[in-house]
Structure to design on (547 residues):
C-alpha cells in the first residue's frame, strides 16, 4: 500500500517528536517524510519532498502557520493543510477557513482526535485519486466528451495539415466513417439567414429561432448524403462565410460528379422546405485525408464567388477557377506551422512539417512558375527567421554544396528534388542554432541573477519576485530554470551566499553576531543563528571561537 506523505511543522522539537512518536502513521496510511521548525524551513522542505499533507502549528518564529498556509495555497492548491494551535481564538479559525485549511484543531494534540482527522484526510485523498483512476468513471466521462472530441478533431482536420498516422488513429477512436477512400472532398455551407422572403413565401415558425436552422440543414444534408456517401458534418464558426463544414469520402462505387449533383439537389430541397437560401462551396479533391484542409480552404474560396455566380446553389471551385487544379500559396497557417516546428522541434515534427509542404507542392497541378514562387516564399520565410533571431546566415548555409551564399543556394533549388533536401537540412540547422542561442541566453540570465544576489544579499526583503522584476521574467519560469542550471532552489542558493559571507565576516572581523546577521540579510539574530547552526552544526559564536 502506498503511504501518503506528511510533514510536521512546529517550533517546539519536543512537540514534533511527541506527535511522531504517539501516532501509528502506517496504520492510518501515512509516512512522515520530514519536519521543520518554522515556516521558512517548511517551504523549502515542501518544495523538495512534495508531501500530500502539511501539519503545522500557528504560532512560530520567522513565519507563522497561517502565512505558511497562504504560501502553500498559492503554489500547491490541492495540498491538504491541518493547523493546530494552543490558542482558542476564533480569529485564527476564521483565517484558516478563508485559506481552505482542511482541519483546525487545538493543542495539546489529542492522539485519538488527530488519528480520526488523519483517517478522514486519507479517505478524501483516496476518493480523489480513485476518481482520477477509476476506469469506469473515466470511460463514462470519455463517452460524454466524445461528441466534443470528435467535433474538435474534425475542426483541426479541416483547419490544418495533420500527421497521417494520427488521423487514422483518431478516425478509429472516434468512429468517424472516412478511412480508406479513393479521395476526399470538403464542402463549406453558407446559410443566407438574412435574405428576405419572396411574396410567394410565407415565414415559418422556424425563422423566429434562427439558431435552429443550421441543425435542420445538417439533418437534410445527412439524410440525402447517407445512401451514397460516407461523410462527416460539423458546425463551423471559423469563417465569416461557412456555417457548416463537411467531408465526403469518394469511393469506387460513387463519383465526384454525383456528389456535386446531390449537393445541388440539397440546396433546392432546403430552399423549398426551410425557405432559406443555401450556398455550398465544393473544394478540390484531396488524395490524402490529412491534407483535407487544403480542400476545405478551396471550398471557402468557392463561396467567395457568390457575388459572381449567385447564391442558393453549389459552387465547385474547378468551375470558377478552371485549369488551376488548386492554389499553391505558402499561406500564413503553413508559415506559422513551419516556424513553430523549427523553433521548438522535435526533429520528427520538423520532418513531418517539411513533408507536408513538399507534398502540397508535388500534388498541386500548377504552372512551373507558380511552383517556383511557392519555393521562394518558403525560402523567404526561412531567411526572415534567421534574420529575426540574428543567426549567422553564412554558418546556416556553410555546408551547402553551392557555398554559403543563400541566394545562390535558393536559385539552385528551384526544382523539387533540391528543394526537399534543402528545406529539411536548413530547418534542422536553424533549430540547432536557436537551441544554442536559448541555452546561451539562459546561462546569461542565471549569471545575471547570481550577480544580482551577490549585490543585494544584504537586503532582508530580497525575494524571487524582486529578482524577476529585475530580469523581466516570470517567477515560475525563473525558479525552474534556476534550479535546472544550479541544482539548487533560489532560497537554498541565497542562503548559501549569505552564510558564506557570514563566515567571511566571522573570520575577518570582531563584529557582534547580530551586526553580522544584519549585514548578510537577516533581520532576526535568532533566525540567523538557527540557519547557521543548521548549516555548520555550531552557532556563529562557537564557530568564531573555534578559529
Amino acid at each position: 500500500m502506498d503511504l501518503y506523505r506528511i510533514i510536521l511543522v512546529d517550533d517546539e522539537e519536543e512537540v514534533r517528536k511527541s506527535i511522531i512518536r504517539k501516532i501509528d502513521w502506517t496504520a492510518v496510511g501515512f509516512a512522515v517524510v520530514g519536519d521543520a521548525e518554522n515556516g521558512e524551513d517548511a517551504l523549502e522542505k515542501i518544495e523538495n519532498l512534495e508531501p500530500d499533507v502539511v501539519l503545522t502549528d500557528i504560532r512560530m518564529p520567522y513565519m507563522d502557520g497561517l502565512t505558511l498556509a497562504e504560501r502553500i495555497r498559492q503554489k500547491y492548491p490541492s495540498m491538504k493543510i491541518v493547523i493546530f494551535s494552543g490558542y482558542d481564538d476564533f480569529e485564527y479559525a476564521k483565517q484558516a477557513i478563508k485559506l481552505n485549511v482542511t482541519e483546525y484543531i487545538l493543542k495539546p494534540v489529542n492522539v485519538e482526535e488527530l488519528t480520526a482527522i488523519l483517517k478522514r484526510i486519507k479517505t478524501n485523498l483516496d476518493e480523489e485519486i480513485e476518481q482520477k483512476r477509476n476506469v469506469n468513471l473515466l470511460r463514462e466521462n470519455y463517452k460524454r466528451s466524445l461528441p466534443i472530441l470528435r467535433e474538435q478533431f474534425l475542426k483541426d482536420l479541416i483547419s490544418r495539415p495533420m500527421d497521417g498516422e494520427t488521423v487514422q488513429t483518431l478516425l478509429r477512436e472516434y468512429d468517424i466513417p472516412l478511412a480508406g477512400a479513393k479521395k476526399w472532398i470538403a464542402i463549406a455551407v453558407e446559410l443566407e439567414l438574412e435574405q428576405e422572403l419572396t411574396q410567394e413565401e410565407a415565414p415559418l415558425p422556424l425563422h423566429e429561432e434562427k439558431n435552429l436552422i443550421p441543425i435542420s440543414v445538417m439533418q437534410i444534408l445527412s439524410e440525402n448524403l447517407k445512401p451514397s456517401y460516407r461523410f462527416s458534418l460539423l458546425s463551423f464558426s471559423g469563417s465569416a462565410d461557412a456555417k457548416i463544414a463537411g467531408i465526403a469520402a469518394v469511393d469506387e462505387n460513387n463519383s465526384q460528379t454525383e456528389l456535386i449533383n446531390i449537393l445541388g439537389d440539397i440546396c433546392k430541397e432546403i430552399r423549398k422546405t426551410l425557405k432559406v437560401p443555401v450556398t455550398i462551396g465544393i473544394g478540390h479533391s484531396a488524395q490524402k485525408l490529412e491534407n483535407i484542409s487544403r480542400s476545405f480552404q478551396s471550398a471557402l474560396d468557392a463561396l467567395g464567388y457568390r457575388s459572381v455566380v449567385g447564391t442558393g446553389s453549389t459552387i465547385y471551385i474547378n468551375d470558377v477557377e478552371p485549369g488551376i487544379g488548386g492554389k499553391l500559396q505558402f499561406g500564413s497557417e503553413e508559415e506559422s506551422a513551419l516556424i513553430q516546428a523549427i523553433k521548438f522541434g522535435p526533429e520528427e515534427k520538423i520532418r513531418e512539417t517539411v513533408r507536408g509542404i513538399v507534398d502540397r507542392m508535388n500534388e498541386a497541378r500548377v504552372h512551373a512558375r507558380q511552383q517556383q514562387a511557392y519555393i521562394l516564399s518558403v525560402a523567404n520565410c526561412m531567411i526572415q527567421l534567421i534574420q529575426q533571431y540574428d543567426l549567422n546566415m553564412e554558418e546556416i548555409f556553410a555546408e551547402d554544396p553551392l557555398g554559403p551564399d543563400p541566394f545562390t543556394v535558393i536559385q539552385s533549388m528551384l526544382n523539387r528534388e533540391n528543394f526537399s533536401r534543402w528545406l529539411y537540412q536548413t530547418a534542422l540547422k536553424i533549430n540547432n542554432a536557436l537551441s544554442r542561442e536559448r541555452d546561451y541566453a539562459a546561462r546569461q540570465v542565471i549569471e545575471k541573477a547570481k550577480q544580482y544576489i551577490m549585490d543585494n544579499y544584504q537586503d532582508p526583503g530580497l525575494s524571487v519576485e524582486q529578482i524577476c522584476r529585475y530580469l523581466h521574467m516570470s517567477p515560475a519560469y525563473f525558479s525552474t530554470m534556476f534550479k535546472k542550471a544550479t541544482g539548487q532552489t533560489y532560497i537554498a542558493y541565497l542562503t548559501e551566499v549569505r552564510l558564506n559571507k557570514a563566515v567571511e565576516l566571522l573570520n575577518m572581523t570582531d563584529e557582534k553576531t547580530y551586526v553580522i546577521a544584519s549585514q548578510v540579510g537577516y533581520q532576526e539574530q535568532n533566525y540567523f543563528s538557527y540557519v547557521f547552526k543548521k548549516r555548520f552544526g555550531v552557532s556563529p559564536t562557537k564557530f568564531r571561537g573555534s578559529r
Notes: The first strand starts at residue 4 and ends at 9. The chain has four domains: 4-133, 145-320, 332-437, 457-545. Residues 332-437 form one domain.
